[in-house]
């Protein structure tokens, strides 16, 4: 498509009387394909020329005229719609995708640029709740998208591993140490310990002093306190990593909040030096009233630092250490105010890159349907959700002829894929509903997965792999793409051709759902093609006509590439068989 964009821009530029680059930037892909392949909106130009947009569009269209590979230039309201010859589009898409192979969709436009993505970031000694799933899955997808575009990406897990609650944890452990429980039940044992301490300290306030005492010792670097804190941290991290492995998510740094403890004074001094701080009831704050926000708290009256202080230190450290030009924070909407305050303080400190810090927020996660109970007061664990989906797919696969090991592997990939895709299907600001019957949809009659789901896309991918197996030889790279002129084929080739655009837009808008939507379109279009072939022999992919078959197989191979690459970007494993 890039090639045609350039060509159309060159053709329209002298007629519109504006530079080629300006035309190019304005060109859109019409939502309705019947309108054409590219459209030039005339609003801005018409305003400048004090002309009605439709009149200008008509004038440009009539002067432009059509010549190969442009089939038609027509005015439609305020737009100049351009239709490219299907043969040219198909040939270009197939050739470009074939040449690029696994790199199709990627680019090196991010070369030499670094972006830090802060994602997942769960809290130590707390269960890995379902709320952190979204951050992990969205952040993981953004990580892969930007990497695919050639950026150097640093995945940073800003663990919540500091705060007065650790004083309570240590005090609780000193009272009721239970090695066996910790070894067996890990984080759950820690949570119980914490809850018990919390409850009993309501009756016995001296316990709160005890906890405060331990936190002071921890802050002062006391060896015993430190060792316990480290154990709690390791225990939690061990469990988190199990989930990350299941999701196929990795991090370049696990520098959590505690890591910044020795960097906080410098930050406070910096802000003081700029005259930004003031005392308020014994606490040190940055006043943000002018921007209609509550003050940003840097130090409490007892000198303890806060979440915000550590985030200011983390931002500057990341920028200095990695040379990050952008920092993305993949965190729920409930922290909107926190990030607005953080970015404002950075801006007030005169930090130029503050404007390139972005809060990539998202909606809530809800569990519904009967298969997962959310008993009152019980947090739903991410691992439970994943395992429920895995068990469910394992049941479906039970009767299949597959060896046990493979069944296990496929069941995992499909279960995880279902949960991940469900999370990335809609725009991230929307709430996500987890209902097992919706996330995995299975038709027991045709024995196939269906619906707008991860398993369905994995299934579409296996079908394409099956086709290649059926073909029985290597799919040739060089084919006569002009043989692919069925409307189904043109539609598919266009979807292959626009994949690079889709990847770029998904990254720039921090919106993996753009990839999800594209994959659903691709698999729906392929399904139509495949089924049309079943009804009408002349449309079958593998036919007695060798040249036609080779061309159709090449197209199918490109479709498979797009599907596999897109699924991988999202964090869903493309399967060969299932
Ligand atoms: N640990 C925090 C929480 O669970 C999220 C941290 C997000 N990252 C950040 N730099 N503040 O709420």
Question: Would you give an account of this structure?
Answer:
Helices cover 54% and strands 10% of the residues. The two termini are 34 Å apart. The protein is flat, with a radius of gyration of 28 Å. Helix 5 crosses helix 19 and helix 21 packs antiparallel against helix 22. The mean pLDDT is 93. With 578 residues, the protein is α/β, with parallel strands linked by helices. A four-stranded parallel beta sheet has the order 5-4-9-10, sandwiched between helices. The site of arginine has 10 residues, from helix 13.
Question: What key attributes describe this structure?
Answer:
single chain, 578 residues, alpha/beta, 4-stranded parallel β-sheet, 3-stranded antiparallel β-sheet, 22 helices, flat, binds arginine
């Amino acid at each position: 498509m890039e090639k045609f964009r350039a060509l159309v821009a060159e053709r329209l530029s002298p007629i519109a009387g504006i530079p080629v680059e300006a035309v190019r930037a304005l060109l859109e892909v019409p939502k309705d394909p019947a309108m054409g392949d590219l459209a030039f909106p005339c609003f801005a130009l018409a305003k400048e020329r004090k002309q009605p947009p439709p009149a200008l569009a008509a004038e440009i269209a009539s002067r432009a005229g059509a010549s190969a590979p442009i089939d038609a230039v027509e005015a439609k309201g305020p737009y100049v719609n351009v239709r490219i010859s299907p043969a040219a589009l198909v040939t270009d898409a197939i050739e470009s995708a074939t040449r690029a192979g696994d790199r199709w969709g990627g680019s090196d436009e991010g070369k030499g640029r670094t972006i830090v993505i802060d994602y997942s970031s769960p809290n130590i000694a707390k269960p890995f709740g379902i709320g952190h799933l979204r951050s992990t899955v969205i952040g993981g997808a953004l990580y892969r998208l930007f990497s695919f575009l050639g950026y150097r990406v640093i995945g940073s897990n800003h663990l919540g591993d500091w705060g007065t609650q650790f004083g309570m944890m240590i005090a609780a452990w000193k009272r009721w140490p239970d090695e066996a429980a910790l070894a067996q039940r890990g984080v759950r044992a820690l949570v119980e310990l914490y809850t018990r301490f919390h409850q009993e300290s309501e009756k016995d306030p001296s316990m709160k002093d005890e906890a405060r005492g331990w936190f002071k010792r921890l802050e002062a670097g006391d060896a015993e306190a430190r060792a316990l804190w480290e154990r709690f941290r390791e225990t939690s991290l061990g469990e988190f990593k199990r989930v990350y492995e299941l999701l196929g998510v990795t991090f370049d740094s696990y520098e959590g909040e505690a890591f910044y403890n020795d960097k906080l004074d410098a930050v406070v001094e910096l802000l003081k030096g700029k005259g930004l701080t003031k005392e308020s009831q014994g606490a040190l704050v940055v006043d943000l009233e002018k921007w209609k926000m509550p003050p940003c708290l840097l130090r409490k009256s007892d000198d303890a630092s806060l979440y915000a202080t550590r985030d200011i230190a983390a931002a500057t450290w990341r920028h200095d250490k990695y040379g990050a030009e952008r920092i993305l924070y993949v965190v729920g909407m409930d922290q909107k105010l926190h990030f607005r305050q953080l970015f404002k303080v950075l801006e007030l400190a005169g930090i130029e890159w503050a404007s390139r810090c972005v809060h990539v927020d998202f909606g809530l996660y809800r569990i519904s349907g009967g298969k997962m109970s959310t008993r009152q007061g019980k947090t739903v664990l991410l691992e439970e959700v994943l395992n429920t989906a895995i068990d469910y797919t394992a049941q479906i696969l039970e009767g299949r002829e597959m060896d046990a090991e493979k069944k296990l592997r496929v069941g995992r990939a499909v279960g995880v894929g279902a949960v991940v895709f469900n999370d990335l299907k809609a725009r991230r600001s929307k709430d996500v509903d987890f209902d097992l019957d919706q996330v995995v949809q299975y038709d027991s009659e045709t024995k196939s997965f269906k619906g707008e789901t991860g398993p369905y896309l994995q299934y579409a991918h296996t079908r394409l792999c099956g086709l290649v197996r059926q073909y029985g030889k290597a799919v040739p790279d060089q084919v006569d793409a002009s043989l692919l002129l069925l409307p189904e084929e043109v539609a598919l080739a266009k979807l292959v051709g626009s994949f690079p655009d889709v990847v770029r837009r998904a990254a720039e808008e921090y919106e993996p759902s753009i990839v999800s939507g594209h994959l659903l379109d691709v698999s729906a279009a392929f399904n139509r093609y495949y089924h049309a072939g079943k009804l009408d022999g002349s449309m079958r992919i593998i036919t007695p006509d060798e040249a036609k078959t080779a061309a159709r197989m090449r197209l199918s191979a490109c479709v498979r590439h797009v599907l596999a690459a897109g699924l991988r970007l999202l964090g869903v494993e493309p399967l060969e068989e299932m």
